[in-house]
């Protein structure tokens, strides 16, 4: 269940939400984000008030959550990791169940304002993954939500390396859920704040499946798929894709003669980068598989997801252009669908008219029977009484 901050400042959060349709809408998006998080890790939703993001910069946390999952007596350093993998250190005050030092830096860095919502997911005993839901809307939320749904899927239907669609609008189920140790390992690859004493070449830790790239080459130097490596933050992440999906992504890059991911934000978490690439493949396949019966809402949803990927630097403009063309053609092509529906309605009307005619004939038949029976009705009544009163 969702836990909300119970701190009051010039009115409760509940009253603020009740009096603001805008906040209610943002809350719904926050609840949707939280609903798509892995239940393996506890989480709560927090509304940003004036005291959290403008003055004071003190963030009180839900007491029941802190009692259950955070240190009860000793203060501790709590890390906050955003969707891009950037980590910020904050000071957790156990006696006051809230974040103090460091929260101001996180709030300012992410330009939080009153009315925003944050979803906090405790992925390790001392680290929260933070998902920001903007009160004025943000592509990063739509992107995050799409990736969360992608990662939340636990089943994958495939034949060898080929992923099977149930229909053209179904999302691929590509990223399995991972355990806490794997999540720690993945998150450790994120770019974190470095102290003044840090020196030398700092490279993120990587899993056994990831390899360091010897050098970065341009796409012009890629002659075939054997030369094709997906390099993110100096790491080759080909292992995150099956051979089939790697070939699909190679085809997409080849069609544009460039690495679609080459402008992804520096320091972006490798798992997140892989999720963006995988969902890009998924949407490209869905576009190719779309039919005249595909709902316009599906096209719009895909476009919003791609728009979110562009925020992270993914080159998906050619896919968005194709979607724009399909959306414009959609209204014209719906003529055929409307014609079919009209023809079906005419057939249904003829069937109903036939049923009505049958009912009319039945009424005429019953009218004739009724008249015949009515003529003998009085005679039969007198005969009935005579029989009933006859002597024994």
Structural write-up:
- This protein has 392 residues and is of the alpha+beta class.
- It has helices at 13-18, 21-35, 50-53, 63-69, 103-109, 139-152, 180-187, 243-256, 270-289, 296-311, 317-375, 377-389, and strands spanning 43-47, 59-60, 76-81, 87-93, 98-99, 117-124, 127-133, 158-159, 162-163, 211-212, 231-232, 235-236.
- 29% of the residues are buried.
Topology:
Blueprint: H1 13-18, H2 21-35, E1 43-47, H3 50-53, E2 59-60, H4 63-69, E3 76-81, E4 87-93, E5 98-99, H5 103-109, E6 117-124, E7 127-133, H6 139-152, E8 158-159, E9 162-163, H7 180-187, E10 211-212, E11 231-232, E12 235-236, H8 243-256, H9 270-289, H10 296-311, H11 317-375, H12 377-389
Parallel strand pairs: 3-7
Antiparallel strand pairs: 1-6, 2-5, 3-4, 4-5, 6-7, 8-9, 10-12, 11-12
Shape type: elongated
Please trace the helix and strand order, writing H or E for each element.
Answer: HHEHEHEEEHEEHEEHEEEHHHHH
Mean pLDDT: 76
For the largest beta sheet, what order do the strands appear in spatially?
A: 1-6-7-3-4-5-2
Name the helicity range: 40-55%
List the total number of helices: 12
Beta-strand share of residues: 5-15%
| Through-space gap between termini | 84 Å
Largest sheet: 7 strands, mixed
Computed over alpha carbons, the radius of gyration is: 32 Å
* Classification by helices and strands: alpha+beta
Catalogue the unreliable spans. Answer: 1-20, 152-208
Number of strands: 12
């Amino acid at each position: 269940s969702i836990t909300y901050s119970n701190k009051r400042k010039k009115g409760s959060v509940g009253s603020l939400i009740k009096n603001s349709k805008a906040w209610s809408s943002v809350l719904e998006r926050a609840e949707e984000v939280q609903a798509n998080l892995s239940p393996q890790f506890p989480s709560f939703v927090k509304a940003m008030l004036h005291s959290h993001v403008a003055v004071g910069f003190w963030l009180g946390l839900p007491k029941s959550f802190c009692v259950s999952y955070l240190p009860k007596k000793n203060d501790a350093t709590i890390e906050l990791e955003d969707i891009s993998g950037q980590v910020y250190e904050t000071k957790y005050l156990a006696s006051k169940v809230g974040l103090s030092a460091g929260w101001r830096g996180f709030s300012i860095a992410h330009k939080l304002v009153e009315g925003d919502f944050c979803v906090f997911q405790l992925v390790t005993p001392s680290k929260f993954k933070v998902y920001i839901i903007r009160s004025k809307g943000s592509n990063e939320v739509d992107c995050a939500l799409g990736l969360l749904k992608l990662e939340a899927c636990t089943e994958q239907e495939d034949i060898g390396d080929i992923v099977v669609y149930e229909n053209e609008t179904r999302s691929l189920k590509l990223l399995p859920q991972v355990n806490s140790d794997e999540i720690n390992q993945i998150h450790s690859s994120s770019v974190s704040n470095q102290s003044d004493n840090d020196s030398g070449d700092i490279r993120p830790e990587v899993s056994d499946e990831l390899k360091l790239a010897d050098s970065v080459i341009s796409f012009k130097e890629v002659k075939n798929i054997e030369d094709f490596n997906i390099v993110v933050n100096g790491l080759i992440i080909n292992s995150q894709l099956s051979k089939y999906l790697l070939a699909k992504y190679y085809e997409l890059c080849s069609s544009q003669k460039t690495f679609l991911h080459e402008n992804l934000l520096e320091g972006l978490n490798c798992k997140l980068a892989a999720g963006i690439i995988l969902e890009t493949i998924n949407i490209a396949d869905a576009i190719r598989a779309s039919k005249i019966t595909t709902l316009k809402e599906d096209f719009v949803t895909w476009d919003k997801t791609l728009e979110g990927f562009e925020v992270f630097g993914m080159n998906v403009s050619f896919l968005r252009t194709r979607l724009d063309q399909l959306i414009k053609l959609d209204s014209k092509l719906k003529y055929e669908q409307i014609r079919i529906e009209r023809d079906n309605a005419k057939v249904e009307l003829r069937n109903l008219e036939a049923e009505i005619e049958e009912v009319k004939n039945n009424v005429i038949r019953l009218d004739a029977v009724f008249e015949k029976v009515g003529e003998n009705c009085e005679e039969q009544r007198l005969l009935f009484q005579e029989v009933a009163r006859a002597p024994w």
